[in-house]
Each structure stands twice: as C-alpha cells, then as structure tokens.
Amino acid sequence: MELILPDTVLESCVCNFCDKFLSVQPVKIYKNHTIKCGRCSKKDDNGTKSIYNIIAANGIFKCINRFEGCRKMLRHYEVLEHEKQCLGNTICCPLCPGLCGLRIFWMIFHFKKCHIDKYLKKPCFTINRDKINNTYLFRKDDNLFFISYKIQDNGDIYLKGCNINPSNVQTSMSFFLLTKSSIIEARKLNLSDNKNEFRIKKKDILETTDMRIKFEIETLPHFFVLSNSSVPTMEAENQVKRILENFQRFTKFYYNQDITFPRKITMTSGHQEETQFLMSHDRTYIIKKCGSETYNIFLECCNCVNIFLPPTTLLNGFFVKIKNYFFNICSNCFQYLYSKNKMITYVSFQSVLENINTFFFDCSWNCGKKFPLTQLHVHEFFVVCPIENCWKIISKNEFGNHFKNVHSLTLASNAYFISLNDNFNSITWLSLMTCFVKLSCIQFTDHITLLMNVHYSYNVTNVRVKGIVFDEQKKVVGELEDGQILHVLTNSSTRIKCHFSYYWDE
Question: InterPro entries attached here (predicted)?
C-alpha cells in the first residue's frame, strides 16, 4: 500500500539541517533532539532510526520545488535522483535588505520566523497610512504570492501582485477595496503579464475610509505526475495512520530542547541480573533480555504518547504484543484496546520491571538529577508561575498555555533575537529547564540596556543561569547573570542574539 502524505504532515515533519521533507531514508533522531533526513544523516553517527521510516517506505512525496511549478510525486528512493536535476531557484527577501540566495521553499519558513505579521493566512490586509509601503507573503495551495502596496506623495496608492511561480503558471488576481459602507472592485490583474499593478486615486479614497484590501486569486488547475503504474491511496490503513499520528506528536517533544527524550533508567547493581532486557533501535519496543547496566527505555505510551507518567499509571501499564513485538501502552489505552480485542497478548509492567520502585530515573527536564519513581513525578511535573502576584502551580506541559491565556505573554526559547530596527522597549519571558528568565530591553539612540532576572521553580535551589550576548558577527559583547545590567553599543548592528544556559552549584 502506498500513501500520499498530506501537506500538513510534510510541512510539520522536516529535517532540522536542510529544512526539506523527511522524504529520504534513513530518518534519524539524535540525543540533542534534532532530526535528520537521509540527505544529512551519516552511517555510524550515533543517530537512532525513527519509526517515521515505516511511513516513508510506503509514502508518496511532493517535490520540494513544488512552489516553482514541479508537480512530480516521488517515492523515497526516487527523491535524491530527482533533486539532482530539479535544482530550484533562489530569491531575495523583499523585507530584508541584502538577504538573497534563499531557496523559494524556505521563504515560508523565513516569513513565519522573521516576519510573522507579514505572512497572510487570509486573502486580506489593512493599509497602514503611517507606513508608505509594505509587502506580504500569501500562499494558495502550491503557489506563493508577494502582495505589496506603496503610498505616493500625492496620496495615490499603488497595489501590486507578484506570483513567485514560473511565468507558465496562468494566474489572475482581483483586488477589492472594503469600506464601511460598500465593497469597491478595484481591478483584475493577469499576473502573467508585465502590467501587474494598478493605482487607487486619492480622490476615490475618503479620509474616514477603512483601508482594508481583499483579493481573490484564480489559478489554472494543475496535476501531479507519479511514475510507474501503481495507484496510491489517500487513506492509510489503521496501523499506519496511528503511527503517523504518533510521530506528529513525537516531533513536538523532539523539537523541545528542554526535554531529555527518551527517558533513561539507571539500574542499581543489585538488580542488574534480575531485570535485563534489550530495546529496539527506535526504542519503541522490547526485543529480549540481555546484560547491561544502563538502559534507554521508551516509557511513553505507544498510543497516547503520554510523557508524564505518574507512578500508578506506570505500574499499571502493559506491554502489548503487536506483530511479534511488545509495545508499551498505558493502562487507560490498554483498557480501551482490550475492550475491542480480548484475544490480544500482553504482559504487565510489574512482571517485567519487578523492582521498578528501586530504579532511578533521569529528570526529563534535563536538570541532571535522578529520582526514584515515587519522587520523580512531583519533581518534574509542577512549577510555580513566576509572574508577580500569580503564584499558580501549573504542570510543565501547560505553562505555555498559561502564559498565553492568563498573562497574554509568549515564552521564547533559550536563544532569543532582539531586532534593533524598531525603537521600542520590551520584556521577554523565556523558559529554561526548571526556571524562567525575564529579559528587559531598553533601547536608546546608540546603545541598549539589558536586565536579566531569574525566577526559580520551588523545587530547584542550586541552579544558576548565565546569558551570553552576541552581535551580528557572532562576537561575544557581554555576559549576564541574575540581577545584572549590561549596556551594549548598537553601532551598525541591526539585531543581537541572547543565548541562555544553566549550570549547577557543586
């Protein structure tokens, strides 16, 4: 069975090194939580083969240059040969002066990362009279468009549409000027012609008009081409669909740099002989017993991927036999599975891990400490909100939503960029291991002032955080610790980078 992978899957599962689809095997996962496709991974590079390879082996992939008009559908073993001939083009970012050489399929990633407010999710935008020109990126299916406007000195407004795809893709665009009382059709453009802009005269625009522009895009239908005679299906079998859904959930954890994944279990010397077993290469199932001191065990449920397992759930879990292998599954999912098929073969966690309460587990938040199972859950699961006068105790996997919904704040990663193009002051919260960093930035004409404050979780007492500040040439311009102030000369730099790391007091 061959499966056509939808765009939502292709674009959520990409290589961390080349940003291309995971369409070349083997796909590997590494200890630093990065994912490499077969283009970038090497033999004997200490990577673990991902269960995503099961999907890729039966998958049909679009060409990475689909935004440039290539409509080839490829199997995983056809991708590399096709990419040798289908090289694709490069393009300059219209919003970043001097930034050229971007592959066209990177443009979406670039806008979402650097110009998120200029990436249009809907075919409409508002003209800001205070800004004389602006450019937006809009995507429709496998076509990309630059939409821009420019306000002339006499008050006239020029609207322009540009199809990034090749000129042989027939495309037309209609613009509409939305006012509070009516909708005015401005003009229909053929983007294949050189004349792809028009003017809205100042006399047609009232001063009170809400300058909101809506556009409609019409493209000729295009068809994808698949080699050979086998016909793929759009629907996956239940098992492949489940694996695909689980992998999409896994990637959320793999991309989280704060989580140690998969979790490690350290056996004490007294129990090395009593419980000895070997995990598969992708760490999703147990193969057989063997002898070793430290084991990397994939404890998350293979069905719901619950990464925070309380002791009762873990002790009541099961290993379920599926096609000659034993997959671990939590008690809740097991009860549902057992109700559907009472003939399944299974074994409980307790029968395999008889002495699990005597084992020491690494904290999944990478704090470097080990705990018995009964203490681990309390240590890693809860944290106190650092926002003043809040003091709410929340779980680690929910504090991002708490910051957004309750405090209207967004948590940044441990590598944070400050743009100096706009003159503004800012306060940014960052999540780092079991503590939070509050970074205050005050911008002046020739320098900026940074203030760092660290807010620790109630169960962390001896961790220390250090911030290192780099300029655009990646040179270190200063360091920060809790409560310290740093003055940074801006000179000709347009942005600086703040990287935060932690260390433990001895």
Answer: Znf_RING/FYVE/PHD
